[in-house]
Specification:
It is built from nine helices and seven strands; from the N terminus they run E-H-E-H-E-H-E-H-E-H-H-E-H-H-H-E. With 265 residues, it is an alpha/beta fold. A seven-stranded parallel beta sheet has the order 3-2-1-4-5-6-7, sandwiched between helices. Bound molecules: NADP nicotinamide-adenine-dinucleotide phosphate.
Length: 265
């Protein structure tokens, strides 16, 4: 197993991509902190599933946008599992899908606070611990949006581009402390967040139909992201740091052909 003896804190692991990452980390022997905010029952299910497969996991509630809550979560994780030497900052909310001229201050800062400030809160609170270990890994789940930079997505684009920048700068700051930092940019993954907007935008409600429209025959899956997280945190991935890595199934910077969100302005 590639992550035996490691402890991974995965934010937003109650559902979607985060739950997939938590399962992949556990499959490779890491003990996992399943962070959640509102979906306690779903988080407990992920924990039970990991335990049923012989792994170790605990669920901890914290709003990643709140520095003090994140601080307490990290303290609890270290107290219960001994350390946190892998952080996957994944928790996120949808962008508002509006032209900038229609965005309110509150809407813009809500998106920035959840993604970008959330990533800072998590990294800032785990780093003092990580510096004491031989190796640490920080992974920010960013988005394909930082390459596409589509219209009507400025809150989300800016938040995710900020996360890419955090990853690159932080990797340099921590390179002599054995801490690897990368950003991962998923393509379209059929989670609650993305499926709602795919079906609203395209009118398609059958996953198989959408899969058929993708270059490699399917959308990205949470496990594709989880497998990359495992690889980066493993010995094999140990020389990769300071990178933004997209996982999008041969879709480039253009949106997939069926997916062209309409202008809101
Ligand atoms: P999702 O299915 O909607 O799940 C979102 C997760 O984030 C949930 O576990 C939710 O927890 C958690 N969360 C939201 N706000 C939180 C907060 N303030 N504090 C702690 N947890 C919070 O979304 P997803 O599609 O898996 O997205 C995961 C990440 O991937 C996001 O950062 C997203 O931007 C990014 N991404 C997704 C796609 C895609 O196509 N799906 C593509 C590119 C990037 P609770 O339910 O417990 O509140």
């Amino acid at each position: 197993m590639k992550l035996e003896g490691r402890v991974a804190l995965v934010t937003g692991a109650s559902r979607g991509i985060g739950a997939g990452i938590a399962r992949c980390m556990a499959r490779e022997g890491a003990a996992v902190v399943v962070n959640y905010f509102r979906s306690e029952a779903a988080a407990r299910e992920v924990v039970q599933e990991i335990e049923a497969s012989g792994g170790r996991a605990i669920a901890i509630r914290a709003d990643v946008g709140d520095f003090q809550q994140v601080k307490r979560m990290v303290e609890q994780a270290v107290a219960e599992l001994g350390k946190v030497d892998i952080l996957v900052s994944n928790a996120g909310i949808k962008g508002k899908g509006k032209a900038l001229i229609d965005l309110t201050y509150e809407e813009f800062t809500e998106t920035i606070n959840n993604h970008l400030v959330g990533a800072f809160n998590c990294a800032r609170n785990v780093l003092p611990y990580m510096r004491g270990y031989e190796r640490g890994d920080i992974q920010f789940i960013s988005s394909r949006s930082t390459d596409m930079l589509m219209a009507n997505d400025s809150d989300y684009n800016a938040a995710k581009a900020g996360m890419d920048a955090l990853a690159k700068g932080l990797a340099k700051e921590e390179r002599y402390n054995g801490i690897r930092v990368n950003a991962i940019g998923p393509g379209l993954v059929p989670t609650d967040m993305a499926w709602e907007s795919v079906s609203k935008t395209t009118g398609m409600d059958d996953l198989e139909d959408v899969d058929k429209g993708m270059p490699l025959g399917r959308m990205v899956r949470a496990e594709d992201i989880g497998n990359l997280c495992v690889f980066l945190a493993s010995e094999e991935g140990s020389h990769i740091s300071g990178e933004v890595i997209y996982v999008r199934g041969a879709v480039g910077a253009e949106p997939p052909p069926f997916y062209l969100p309409k202008s809101t302005s």
